[in-house]
Amino acid sequence: MELWGLLSDIIFLLSACLIGGGVMSRMGQSPLVGYLVAGMLVGGPGGFGIVGSYREIEAIAELGVALLLFSLGLEFSVHRLKSLGRKPLFGGLVQVSVTMLLGAGAAVMLGLAVEPAIAFGMMIALSSTAVVLRILMERSEIEMPHGRNSLGVLLIQDVAVVPLAVLMTVLGGEGSLSDIALDIGTLMLMALGLAGTLYVLTKIAVFTLGTLTLHRNRELTIIFAATIGLGAAWAAHRVGISPALGAFIAGMQLGSSAFATQIRADVSTLRVLLLTLFFGAAGMVADPLWILSHVHWVAGAAIALTVGKFVIIAAIFLVFRQSFRVAIATGLALAQVGEFAFVLGAIGRTSGIVSEDVYALVVSITIVSFTISAFLVPMAPTIADRLARMLGIEPGDQSETPRLAKPTDALVIGFGPTGQLAALPLIGSGLNVTVLDLNHEGVRRATDFGFVGQVGDATSVEVLEHAQVGEVKLVVITIPHYRSAIYIVELVRSMNVAATIFVRSRYQIHTESLSDAGGIVCGDEEQVGGAIRQNVEDWLVQHPSGNSTDRDEVLVDEPA
């Protein structure tokens, strides 16, 4: 299809998603439901047929899932991934196997032959990475116990896509057991090679990012982020594994770098756009007329699968001796059929093992389960808690509580000579201090002070959210640029009404507007460092933490 025809289809689909998502948000519901319905109406087989470029849009939209996993990988360094433990990862392996076998058994009892029944079991075994992780990240629940379980299971499911796809081909009579072993072994070696290659490339990329001081040009950091995220997805696709998994590995390698926060913010807009296209394209697969004419089958199967997967997953984590609340919440979060059902179903149709009616049923169930999950996943902890109370079950032990990073007490934005001078009183104060600076050298100095340093643009909402600005007690803004400073003050104040905000003003003329925005203005250019330092010391006197050390041991760069 020509470019302009594809572009018009994308515009129509995005417009429909905008309307559908807006209507659902207005009704207090998840916009995901609006995106699915919009895609079904404008491009589905039984819809209005306005959008016809399904294959092209689907290929583009798949990158949205890859960027979602890339962003998640930035949150999880290798060390943090190890901290997930064995239970979520092993639980994912058990869940896929048990769900596939029970699903196949149910299909045989309903009249399918053994091979098509196994294919059906494979299609329903996987949950939705796009739906679950999107909601968990939006709600900041990825570090909660059920969020960590969900992440581990979904990662294993992404890995399982490849052997399941090979098995689907063999069921269609296009291969043998020896072919399966050879293909899976080859893919495992290629996956290990990809992981090693991505590790080396990301280390080189991070070194280059710091050495070439790309912070001086924001365009270059955006290009860097897109190149790494999309490049990893492409490389994974080329070796035959899930593009989303490749993107996650690349993000995870970058997760321990100081640039992770800014990279996450740089890809966020593109990620949201492509994920919206993904859900719109998912809706285009379903035929609303077929669903209406087979509503009893679709509704019954969707409810049965939701309940069945919930019971299986919850039971697995109960057997693994996790608390009742965590097991129930995990089961509710993963109780849907995932987007890989489309991929496996398409392979099954090509191989002749999946009939048109079975494929249409699975697609319809998947769309319905997406809709159910849009309501169920956000409510999972609440439902689990209420169910536990109804049954009189006591809370689990302390090991089941979320293992969150230390909360940020003070946030320093800008760490040049003025910022370093202003931050001296915070050394040894007992407060957890985070420093945001676009200059890698400033971040390095922050770590010398004993603070957490992050390369990030404080004019970005996502960067501030990651720095936990909503929870901080003190914000110190020392950047010299007036327009950026006033925007940051307004942004911080909108996200945290209680925090004390000290802000630098280079010129007297800007003092009033910075004060009106919600900041406490500290002196002119000649006196600003000492003025902010004095204000910070006064604030610490009013908010003692009980800890102190010698603050004069840290050397501060001399102001220019």
Automatic annotation (TrEMBL):
Chain segments annotated as transmembrane: 6-25, 32-54, 60-78, 90-112, 118-137, 149-172, 184-208, 220-237, 243-260, 272-291, 297-319, 326-347, 359-380
This protein's UniProt keywords: Membrane, Transmembrane, Transmembrane helix, Transport
One Gene Ontology term from the biological process aspect of the record: potassium ion transport
Cellular compartment(s): Membrane
Signal peptide extent: none
Matching InterPro entries: Cation/H_exchanger_TM, Na+/solute_symporter_sf, NAD(P)-bd_dom_sf, RCK_N
Gene3D superfamilies per the UniProt record, alphabetical: 1.20.1530.20, NAD(P)-binding Rossmann-like Domain
Domain RCK N-terminal span(s) in chain numbering: 407-525
The keyword Oxidoreductase is assigned to this record: no
Gene Ontology MF, one: antiporter activity
GO CC annotations, alphabetized: membrane
Topological relation to the membrane, as annotated: Multi-pass membrane protein
Similarity comment: Belongs to the monovalent cation:proton antiporter 2 (CPA2) transporter (TC 2.A.37) family.
Protein name, as recorded: Inner membrane protein YbaL
